[in-house]
Amino acid sequence: MTYFKLKTMAVASAAALLANSASAVEIEYWQYFFDARVAAMETLIENFQEANPDITVKMTHFPYADYRTKVAAAIPAGEGPDVVQLFYGWLNDYVAAELIQPLPADVFPADKIDAEFFPMVQAMKEGDQYWALPTAVRSLALFYNERLMEEAGVEPPTTLDELMTAAKAMTKRDGAGNLTQVGLTAGMTAQDHHWWREGLVRQFGGEPYTDDYKTVNYNSEAGLEALKYYTSLFMGDDAVTSVGFMDEPQAAFKAGRAGMHIDGSFRIGALDDTRGLKWGVTELPANDDGMRSNYSSYWVNAITSKAEGEKYDAAVKFMDYITSDEAMQIWLDTVGELPAKPSVGMTDENANDPVFGPFIRGLEYAHTTKFVDESAQRQQMVEMVERMTLQDMSAEDSLAKAAEAEQKILDDYYNSAN
Description:
46% of the residues lie in helices and 17% in strands.
């Protein structure tokens, strides 16, 4: 081979390398730090980059406590993520602050998403466009202590009546009448405000909100019956629990001092690491008519307002992959959070899994509360119960006060947004 030919080939190779480098684009992905989430995203990024060698994805993560502040400061400055993870309840704030942009309809058509994802994801839609989509979702289920159930001679409950019967059988008191073991944990500061709002109110025939969650609707006969059922767990001579027993509901269950506990699928990992605790999980109990209702929450991914040009195009491709069936199965296997699509969640293997299955099946009848301020709205549920237990206020009056106070929170938010 001649010198000139070798030189020509070298020049051509160098030119090709420069062309590939010039066409390559790097985008940044941000999420809060959680070991399993980081590991799952590392796998997804590796898979995506292998299929898209012209795109590099750089992942950055922060402690949860700092996460929202970091995102809010970076994007307006033209820095930070092109694709960002956010809690679904923050969506209104992110849209109002112009931190994210709607997903392109040609890649994410609303009717296709409506058909392919579990229904609660539609909380991310405004009109005919989606702003964000999850890789995984969460739901509630009933954890139970297998040893305490066997000792009491009861089975995992399938109805609300059976829940109360099983809880009574597993409740224990000392000689002075003090609870030493509860049949079911309780506490609106944990997951019970979700169970009451999206579960019990609906099971007693009501709707917790109307007007796309802008109007409180639980100050009704159904809401009252739901509240009376819930508070009967810890009020009266037949109480099967106590709010604040062992400080936190999940702590009582982990310690083997509670027969049952309602919690999210995110609790699975912590219980797996609890030595000596033999537990199972089942779907939330149905009402007398067999009707079930559940609550779902999730973290979503969105394209930020910072992403433009070739970075925007790359971000769209990345969003498309991390909301795919393949990505959802990887996330389930690595993190334990539930697929956002029935095509993944409702496979025989996943839907019938003894641990994940009850949560996944619960997604079919789950609802997502559109919060404007979750902590403030949750506090109204806490105070609703406290007025009854500490001030001896009637259920009717306390329910009405909670509805009035929460409606003010909603009105203040939506009026200021307009």
